[in-house]
Design a protein that fits this description.
The chain crosses the membrane at residues 7-29, 65-89, 101-125, 137-157, 178-203, 237-258. By secondary structure, the protein is mainly alpha-helical. It is built from 14 helices and no strands.
Length: 272
């Protein structure tokens, strides 16, 4: 098959995949009454009305929800980097009883649907009085519950020469100092990959914040968008698209800046 036909086929496929995104971007700048009546991607009139109205649609600036999402996202990143790296180092380097069993349980938890844990976790945090706070969203991150990142870091640490650990032990360093000064600096590709995935997944997470956050002032961006859908009629579609477009900007900017680190981290982690 000629390369020109392959490229043409890929362009058609790409256009098909990004059409919904293009339609959302165009609809964000359309007058509300034209969004559903004129569904094409070529607008006849452009306006910023949707952004002006959507910014204060929930009786507070939408920037407050961006701040909430940013706090949860940063806390989740710190938690995953701290707990998953320590757990991975222990499973990859330290010798203790049932280490293989613990690692197997960690891997098995990846295949366990999160929805199985929702009810017991909610009851637990409710009894602690932590509902309507960000603690139920952050505490699991500091307990290495994201087994995917633990597995990612374990695989990366196993590629590092053990001679580095032995040299540190000869110099009198214990397990933690060896981890902190020798292993952790060399884990940068895996740490960057964890940071990128945690940022994207946490920023876009809708289900967990919806369960624990019921106060409007505590909403994250996805929950705020959902409330906008529930509280508005057809005239609120334009505001929804406008705020959805703004909510995508941090993801697009972050991914554009960190893309090369993501590819490098995944490629390096897969080497043996």
């Amino acid at each position: 098959m000629p390369k020109s036909l392959k490229h043409a086929g890929l362009l058609v496929f790409v256009a098909f995949m990004i059409y919904p995104l293009i339609w959302m971007v165009v609809s964000a700048f359309k007058p509300p009454e034209q969004i559903l009546t004129e569904p094409g991607i070529i607008p006849h009139e452009l306006t910023l009305q949707n952004f002006k109205e959507g910014w204060h649609a929930l009786n507070r600036p939408f920037s407050a929800f961006f701040v909430n999402s940013l706090l949860v996202t940063i806390g989740s990143i710190v938690g995953n980097l701290f707990s998953c790296s320590l757990t991975a180092y222990a499973l990859a380097r330290l010798q203790f009883r049932m280490r293989t069993v613990y690692f197997a349980i960690t891997l098995a938890s990846v295949m366990l649907p999160f929805h199985v844990l929702v009810i017991p976790q909610y009851i637990f945090f409710s009894q602690l009085g932590l509902v309507n706070t960000y603690w139920p969203l952050l505490i699991p991150k500091f307990l290495a519950t994201d087994a995917f990142f633990v597995f990612l870091m374990v695989q990366f640490i196993r590629t590092l020469p053990r001679e580095l650990d032995r040299a540190a032990w000869i110099d009198g360093a214990g397990p933690f100092l060896t981890f902190w000064y020798v292993v952790l600096p060399l884990m940068r590709p895996a740490l960057v990959t964890t940071t990128i995935f945690t940022f994207i997944w946490t920023w876009n997470d809708f289900f967990v914040p919806l369960i624990y956050l019921t106060r409007t002032q505590a909403f994250t961006v996805p929950v705020a968008l959902n409330s906008m859908v529930d509280s508005e009629t057809q005239s609120g579609v334009g505001m929804l698209f406008a705020m959805s477009l703004l909510s995508l900007l941090p993801i697009l900017i972050f991914f554009a800046v960190a893309q090369k680190y993501l590819i490098r981290g995944i490629a390096t982690t897969g080497l043996k």
